[in-house]
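Hi R.,

Quick one: here's the Beta-galactosidase sequence you asked about.
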Amino acid sequence: MEFFKSFFAAIIISFFLFHANATNVTHDGRSLIIDGVHRVLISGSIHYPRSTAQMWPDLIRKAKEGGLDTIETYVFWNAHEPIRRQYDFSGNLDLIRFIKTIQDEGLYAVLRIGPYVCAEWNYGGFPVWLHNLPGVSFRTKNDVFMNEMQNFTTLIVDMIKNENLFASQGGPIILAQIENEFGNVMGPYGAGGKEYIQWCSNMAESLGVGVPWIMCQQQDAPKPMINTCNGFYCDEFKPNNPSSPKMWTENWTGWFKSWGGADPYRTAEDLAYSVARFYQKGGTFQNYYMYHGGTNFGRTSGGPYITTTYDYNAPLDEYGNPNQPKWGHLKQLHDVLHSMEYTLTHGDVTNTDLGNSVSTTVYSTKEKSSCFLSNAHNQTDAVVKFGGIDYYVPAWSVSILPDCKDEAYNTAKVYAQTSVLVKKPNKAEDEPNSLEWVWRPENIERTAVQGKGDHHANRIIDQKAMANDASDYLWYMTRVELPKDDPLVTGKATLRVTDSGHVLHAYVNGEYIGSQWAQYGSQKYVFEKEVKLNPGKNLISLLSATVGLQNYGPMFDLNVTGVLSPVELVAHKGNEKVVKDLSSHKWSYKVGLDGVANKLYETDCPSKLKWSADSIPVDRNMTWYKTTFKAPLGNAPVVVDLLGLGKGHAWVNGHSLGRYWPSYIADEHACQTVACDYRGAYSDKKCVSKCGEPTQRWYHVPRSFLKDGENTLVLFEEFGGNPSGVQFQTVEIGTACVNAHEGKKVELSCHNRPISRINFASFGDPQGVCGSFKKTECESTEDAVSILEKECVGKESCSFEISEDKFGKAYCAIKRLAVEAVC
Ligand SMILES: *[C@@H]1O[C@H](CO)[C@@H](O)[C@H](O)[C@H]1NC(C)=O
Ligand SMILES: *[C@@H]1O[C@H](CO)[C@@H](O)[C@H](O)[C@H]1NC(C)=O
Ligand SMILES: *[C@@H]1O[C@H](CO)[C@@H](O)[C@H](O)[C@H]1NC(C)=O
Ligand SMILES: *[C@@H]1O[C@H](CO)[C@@H](O)[C@H](O)[C@H]1NC(C)=O
Ligand SMILES: *[C@@H]1O[C@H](CO)[C@@H](O)[C@H](O)[C@H]1NC(C)=O
Ligand SMILES: CC(=O)N[C@H]1CO[C@H](CO)[C@@H](O)[C@@H]1O
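And here's the predicted structure, written out as tokens:
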């Protein structure tokens, strides 16, 4: 009895100890309810492995300053469990530290465990060892798969619980997600897929996290899972359960980039429009995918053919700088939406269709009403008569009137500053203008020349099964014995290799004969090249290099990677062809690069392998280069310009910067000739730029990778290139512009650096865009340049209201101020 008394006392005490600060998260059909309050929440995705732990506080602070109250992340299974039951939560994989950083800033968190994440991440986050487990079948009712998924999901939930990070324990995590966009692909999985989703739901529920679970893009999500929407627009989305609030878990702020692809760009006007429409139509939780995209360090990018940059044209750029005006324009929207939280979650809703795609929505409560006026027409501006007042609502825009009278915001009227970022040379003391290099060849003697491998089989094996994703590189080698009179010896012969992508290099008898690769979206190709074969022994060596494993599609995990059957030698005799299939020959396999095995990328390369400073080779494939440099002064983000190089991998002080491929030029024809117009539905093909330029020339070097004194850059060059132009640079705001109407309060900021000069300022009717403003006849009586020089120069930022009081009289109907400041 005594025992039971103290036992229960202990339980009660621990309940109060751990749950005294518990946050109660529930929901109804209207919104999430946190501690009894119906909430309008604005969230943004930041994936912790795509930046560094040192960057997290600043990123999260800028997200908070940008008006977010929630940060969302996936959990990356293959990063945390690279080898079965061997875990890594160090460095930028420190999930707990990331969640605690969110908590320290006072924001909520959404934990999308998946553990399938898609995310343009290598293999969608699945470990390749999972694919190699006997009897496994992904994302369906399969015991091997479900056991592993449950094992990992439980591990993550337990880690989070141990640190009291769920809201139910007083932590910041208000929602958890299981599976991910399965509804988009579930057809081919049939009944097994349906049972699997039910199992996911039960398994998640059994973990007792004390916060609601979500399932995105899952129309048949079992109760109590909340199904949510992902897309460029989600205003027409309806959850499958009347007690689920309307939630948008992925609003794509831009798009990802692939090798050979152009630079994506989604305008601030269109992104703001999609968000305003969503809240107009009853949405109460929205997440930007991505708010900060970041970098695919190491071999983490998916695809295949996803670039190392994952900038995503997000509100915070790859390096963490506000992407202006997007960041600022959305911040203003968030402030307005938050001010309407009560009416949006409690008001009676009246929608009125005024025709020609114009509509109004009124949220009214006893105390207060809030209104939206929206014009979904993609060409025609509208003047909307509302409550006796005329409102000008441009095409493809929404006006928000928090009190149903004054327009606090219109999605197409951008007053936030535009920042033009520039790259500046490394000004560290004594840093020479060009770097001094040493080099050494990758040793391909044993593979290309001798054909020696570590594994052997009489067939061609999937690269995933053979390499277990330990490296991008896998050698496939086989021998062919040919008699003197074989037509392959006496006549013309070609080598024909079917390849799933991603990159193939072929050698015959130690001689390089050619390479081939594909592009994003079309992996499979046939490599065909004339070869010279000898009587007697011949060696065929094929080097396959992956560029990120596929991350999306029904049963994408089964997609074969690397060299495929058949591999053939074709003899041409007149019009006749004699084909010799080598697929079932004895093949030898060797995983990885010799230089990586010898840790050439490490600063204090331990091996005795010598580097040479003599005649630095140019356009030599399979070559290692090394140099030293001093870190650029200051704390602006650092990039390395790799223009001149082909394709390969880069490391600074042993930290991987990711794959580089500046020689891959963005498709010249992908860019439209018409000017980018924010009006009309966005797609990833719209408004792209930088066609005909290297897909990615600059690579992020996080400050935390650098140290005082000497730093080391190591490059493995696969195709051949010229390192003489390689440069370290900093990314800083070059100019900041504002272009806004009379009556607006605006801010000019150089972010931690003083404004040095006012290049242009005109109050009246200035024309043009940032970088090419021009004055017109209509110009104020006072000199706007000298007014702003007094007000802004020497300060990091200045803010002021645009008025005739300040800038003098101007005699035109609608007056605007345009400013270009130099940082
Ligand atoms: C949590 O909030 C819901 C709805 O607001 C309420 O019904 C429930 O009693 C609350 N639970 C606790 C433990 O406070
Ligand atoms: C995960 O699997 C390991 C054995 O491989 C086992 O020891 C561990 O208890 C499992 N974890 C869970 C939560 O099932
Ligand atoms: C990989 O999968 C995609 C779609 O899931 C398919 O279109 C493509 O042909 C596959 N590639 C190979 C090499 O099987
Ligand atoms: C690769 O290097 C070999 C030997 O250095 C050379 O013969 C060949 O032309 C090179 N190939 C390419 C594509 O640069
Ligand atoms: C504008 O909308 C019409 C009708 O929905 C559509 O046919 C047209 O393609 C759209 N134009 C643009 C530029 O989006
Ligand atoms: C839910 C949704 O809107 N999905 C769309 C997202 O965007 C892609 C690519 O543009 C479309 O194919 C999807 O239908």
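The first strand starts at residue 25 and ends at 27.

Cheers,
M.
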